[in-house]
Each structure stands twice: as C-alpha cells, then as structure tokens.
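To close the chapter, one final illustration. This time we ask the reader to focus less on the individual chains and more on the assembly as a whole: which components sit near each other, and how the overall shape emerges from the parts.
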Amino acid sequence: MTRKSAYTITEFLLASVIIVLLFASALGAYIMVKGISFNSIAGCNLQRDVDILLATIIKGPVEQGGKAFGLRSSFAVSAATPPPVTPLPAWPGQSTIYFTDKDDNVRRYFLNNNTVIYDSPTQNPNQRIIYTAPGNSTVIMRFSAASADQQVVNVYISVIQQNANRASAAGSVITNVNLRNMPK
Amino acid sequence: MNMNLRSSRGFSLAEAVVSVSVLGMIWLAAVDAMIVGEYSASCARHRVQAAYIAQQAIENLRKIPYDIMASSGPTAVVIDSRGTPDNNNDNFNGIQTITVDAEAYGTYYKRVAVNIRWNEMFFGRVRQVSEYCITYIANEPQIN
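The assembled structure is written out below.
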C-alpha cells in the first residue's frame, strides 16, 4: 500500500537524474545532427554558389544588348585602372580585378562586404550585384597573376557560413583563367 | 490473478535489456547513416574543388607552346576543404599527375588527362578518392 501511494525521495531523485540525462543526451544529439546536416546542406549550397560565381566571372554577366564581357575574352588585366599599367599582385592577391575587353572598355569585379559587384561603363546602371552571400557568412575573393605576362589569372573564391551553434560550412574554388586575347 | 500481479510490477530485466538494445541499434544505424551522408556530401564538394584544380593545370598547359606540352608529376596539390586559404592545417593534401598523349591524335590535338588523388577523412575514416579530368588541346592558340 505504501509503495502505491508515492515515490520515496531516493526513487524520485534517481528518476529526475535519469530524465535530465535523457534530455541532455537528446539535446546533444539534436545539436550534433543539426551541425552535421548544416555542414552537408549549407556546404553543398555554398559550393554551388561559388561555382556559379566563378563561371559568371569568367564568362561575364550578360549586359543590355545581350553581350557579355568576362575574364576569358579579355586581353589585359590589372590591379588598378587603367590596365595594364598596374600589374596584378602575386598571391594572396586582392579582391578587385580590372580587365580590358575587346571593345577597349575597362571593367572590374570587386568585393563589397558580402556582395560581388560587376562594374561596366557600357551598362546602365554601371554597377550590378552579381552575388550576395547568405547571412552570417564571409566571402573571400582574391585575384592574382599566375604568369609573369599577366595572361593567366589565378582566381580564389570562398564563402564560409556559420549557424547559431557555431557550426560552419564552406564552399571554395581555386583555378586559373587563361586570357584568350580575343581579336578586336 | 498471478499474471495481473506480475504485470503490474513493471518490466522484467530481460524486457528492459531487449528494448534498450533495439533502441540503441536504431540510434547507431541513424548516426551511421548521417555520417555516411555527410561523408558523401563532403566528398562531392571536394571532387568539385579537385576538378577546378585540374582545370588550373589545364589552363597552365594552354599557356605554354604546343610543341613542349608534356606529361608531368606527380606533384603535390592541396584541396582547401574549409574555405580558409590562409590556414593550411585544414587542407587535404593530394597528388596531381598530368599525362599528355600526342601520338594517338595526330599533329593537331593532344589529349591531356589530369588525375588528382587525395585522402578523404571524416570521423576517423580515411578513404582514397580520385578525380580524373580529360580534355583535348588543339595546336591553334586562338581556339584554345
């Protein structure tokens, strides 16, 4: 009869400890799963973002009139306008690149906080955002010369994102772009 | 009557052990599936990064004169696994081999194959992964 009416203090304390341990392990597992899934899903999304951004930088965003001017079709690059007076630095490079395309106009890509901007005198408005990073993320974009004659450009792009539990995910690419010196 | 009394006392030790074991196995299977999923996603990401490194080698080859384009390697390459270019501790170290095959494609084309191998590591598991990129480079600078 006594056993049916209530718990003893020992049983109650024991049950409380077990419940706390169960909740703590469930919470720990939840945080771990959230971190792992964040790394997987956000990592793949960020990798896709930097792939698309790199392709856009190489080919050039399409301007009014349907023409595109990018690094691939240009014949001169520089760290500052007007090219090719100021050479691109060696690694780690800088986050702005000026390039002269076959129409002799100087265009540039540059990083402004977490956005990548394309600046061209032949589009209206001149500046257009071609990539905006997701929240709580850091963008690194670096251009440097991969050959002494500035005809091969090394491009590095990375986007790192953190979630509320400090789990981080990243996407990054590094490659070289050989200027094609397209005939004017 | 005896049955009712026995069941009102709660679970037997054997029942508790079996149920905890079943739950444990389900939990372990779920954790393992998660780890394999993350491993696959991570591996796919690094494959893309390796493909760009291979592209980097191909772009460098396009720059040199066609006649002296030749096989090279193995050389060391790094895969920036965490997007941190200034921290080399989290990189994956790989080996790159470039094979240039001119014989089978006549005077005008060379076949370039870039193979990158690295050890993919995750939760203590190590597995060698390889990315293989092939392209053809023509003996004509304007169309390279």
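The longest strand of chain B covers residues 109-122. DSSP finds two helices and four strands in chain B. With these observations in hand, you are ready for the problems at the end of the chapter.
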